[in-house]
User: Fold N-acetylglucosamine 6-phosphate deacetylase from Bacteroides xylanisolvens.
Amino acid sequence: MSLIKIYNCKAITPSHILPDAMVIVKDGVIEEVTTNRIEITDAKEINGNGMYVSPGFIDLHTHGAGNHDFMDGSVEAYLEAARTHACHGTTLLFPTTLTSTNDALFKSFAKYEEACSRNHQGAAFGGIHLEGPYFAQSQCGAQDPKFLKKPVPSDYQEILSYTSHIVRWSIAPELPGALDLGCYLDKQGILPSIAHTDATYEEVQKAFDCGYRHITHFYSAMSGITRRNAFRYAGVIESGYLMDGMTIEIIADGIHVPKSLMQLAYKIKGAENIALVTDSMRAAGMPDGKSILGSIEEGQEVLIEDGVAKLPDRSAFAGSVATTDRLVRTATKIAEIPLCEAVRMTSATPARIMGIQQHKGSLQKGKDADLLLFNENIEIKMTMIKGNIVYENL
Assistant:
């Protein structure tokens, strides 16, 4: 039996912050979160030194970190990216692919499965998130347009046949065949998500009925209000706000979505319907300078400066270099969102979106001991996954 007692800390619970709290972990599971003084023999004791203890951060959308991308086609890329993210507070991540050839996807799937079988000191893997290749050409963003196509059963069924680990697929729902694909995924327990899209509100409504109940990187690569033959049409952004059952995710680096729009989204949707994501590329956790967007062999050169990746001519952003601690820092320090709510958007809400809230996402008895210790500046001092400390800087 393994026992851990974390004391002298402020515990961030689903509803409030407990001062001078104690968290007890037994065999990798949270046993108690309390302000009572409990004496335990033979427990490993960790002095929180007045810092916050919170649930581990869950990143629904990341392409890599630590100079590694999940499309590199190596086990090392998965493990090293996971290690880097764990140092910044991520305890569970969903590796995200880029639009590419099917062969490149299949290679990445194989390396993912091998990485899952390894013991490693990094964030755990929650399943694969496919981003593309079924996107609108007009909203391709940083996705390579030459690989974009329309969904047909023979193609997406072949992709799904190569692994059982796909848990989410980001798609433009207005494409021919996309509604059938949404229904197909929904029946298999895979989340279809709206992304890189020119859909109207009416098209989003139809997509919602086919299982599309989440919007990928809200505000980025999607339609707003458009005008056709003098008539105005609401787009995906307005749909995200209007539809109560729709959840959204925000790249909360303070750059992709500025303060005013973060505050607007929080005011309208609330923390219970917003997940903060990094959408990070390989340069997350790395110093400024040149980097590669996408795989090391076929990606394009980008420049890291001002806290974001840019095209070499600085004409556009080319990816996020955020880590999850930065998401919470941005939400609290820049967008002025209460700490409890910012943590909820990086833990409980993403857990609910992915249907894993029974075991993840909050400091509650019986849930996995995925825990963090961090200070007032959201600097991570300890990362624990199922009771195992994978990062420590106390």
